[in-house]
Amino acid sequence: MAEVYDGAVDKGLEGVIACTTGVSSIVDATLCYRGYLIEDLAKNSSFEEVVYLLWNDRMPSATELKTFSDTLRSGMKLDPAFVQQLKGLPTEGVHPMAWLRTAVSAAALWDSDSQSMEQADLEQVALRLTAKVGPMVALFERFRQGKDYVEGNPEKSFAWNFLYMLKGEEPDAEMVDVFDTCLILHADHELNCSAFSARVTASSLSDVYSAVTSAIGALKGPLHGGANEQVMRMLIDIGTVEKAQEWIKNALANKEKVMGFGHRVYKNGDPRAKILRSMSESLCKKAGTAYYDMSKVIDDTVQSEKGLLPNVDFYSASVYYSMGIPLDLYTPIFATSRVSGWLAHIFEQYSKNRIYRPRGEWVGKEGLKYTPIAER
Ligand code: ACO
Questions:
Q1: Chain segment 131-186, per-residue pLDDT in tens
Q2: pLDDT in tens, 24-34
């Protein structure tokens, strides 16, 4: 086993500006998509409108939004031959993010435009991919439960369709609103790990599916999108509000990371966490669970002990739990929304591309001479 060296400059590229971007911006504790505050969008917009904004760098007119939404929603229908192929993938003991990474990669083989770099084809691919990631996630869950694919209703919103395709029954209007807000909050986030992965892959002028598959792999990790599932596992593990403070103090004393806290960029709080916190409060109270109260104790304890604030993954866990969504689907749901942001970044990358090719500072051995194996 080679020795692990730790001499890298700018470990984790902290503070490094890797490219210019006009997709979303983070300044102190403020997040904007294309110049619009996340709070404004979460309150007033819809996921469909946010996707239009991210891709077109402007808000749509009413007619443009209707056409765009109709196309996106009707694109949620999965090809029966593709559904049949996905049925062949294992689900038992398989993490849905691993399954989704494979399914999205396979979807390229059903898309005749997947290798094209023509603008019109790229736009169609983007629409298809954004429309289909959610239905693929829903399909995984249904297959896992031994149930069949449910077709959506293009007359209804993207959020409605996802919940319907997941559960096979018409969702409650309040849950649709909550879910739509979650989709908006997760749609983009400047040069995060998965968006950067997508851009790096796109920078070799590889195709959109390859770039999105790279991004899914990056999102899956517990230091990035995978944290929301781990937050819920922690809440369940803690069990009661009374045990929360001691549990967290012990974890911190053991130098463990508390999932859902800390951020590379936000040092004064993640604005998405504030919105999700109030959603968690009302949903947990309504569901009669203690997960919001427990989360609040954890939040206060991590702040007072470590000075760390919650990120997007902390309160989204109890929100999804209150909606009856299985724990391991939290990160795939993140991908269902974030694919729209990845695509905005991929197109921005294509539009002013230069291949990413940084250097590594050499800290290894030097001047070694080859010895024939018999002499070693
Ligand atoms: N719990 C306990 N301590 C923490 C946490 C945490 N969640 N986050 C950071 N710290 C500590 C580190 O141990 C380190 O302490 P030290 O200086 O004593 O060694 C210090 O704070 C700095 O942390 P880094 O890990 O170096 O910060 P970095 O910017 O590299 O990482 C990250 C940011 C990955 C988000 C980190 O805070 C973390 O691991 N958080 C938990 C996982 C998580 O919630 N990820 C989701 C992030 S949001 C998203 O990607 C969607």
A1: 999 999 999 999 999 999 999 999 999 999 999 999 999 999 999 999 999 999 99
A2: 999 999 999 99
Helices 119-144 and 96-107, axial angle in degrees (round to 10): 140
Instruction: Answer whether 166's CB lies under 8 Å from 135's CB.
Output: no
Query: Please, are residues 82 and 170 in contact by the beta-carbon 8 Å criterion?
Result: no
Q: Is 276 in the pocket of ligand 1 (CB under 6 A)?
A: no
Element containing residue 277 per DSSP (H, E): helix 271-287
273 lines ligand 1 (CB under 6 A): no
**CA pseudo-torsion sign 287, 280, 258, 252:** negative
- List the CATH code of the domain at 19-222+328-351: 1.10.580.10
CATH architecture of the domain with range 227-322: Orthogonal Bundle (1.10)
Domain coordinates in residue numbering, the chain: 19-222+328-351, 227-322
Instruction: State the maximum Cα–Cα separation within the chain, in Å, rounded to a whole number.
Output: 77
- Please state the length of the chain: 376
Query: pTM for the full model?
Result: 0.96
From 190, 192, 223, the mutation candidate for ligand 1 (largest count of ligand atoms within 8 A of CB) is: 223
> At 84, which amino acid appears?
Q
Identical topology for domains 19-222+328-351 and 227-322: no
Question: Which ligand 1 atom sits nearest the alpha carbon of residue 251?
Answer: 2
Helix (H, G, I), strand (E, B) or coil at 156: coil
User: Using CA positions, which residue lies closest to atom 37 of ligand 1?
Assistant: 262
Q: How far is the CA of 260 from the centre of ligand 1 (A)?
A: 9
- Contact partners, residue 161, CB within 8 Å, separation at least 6: 73, 76, 134, 135, 152, 153, 154
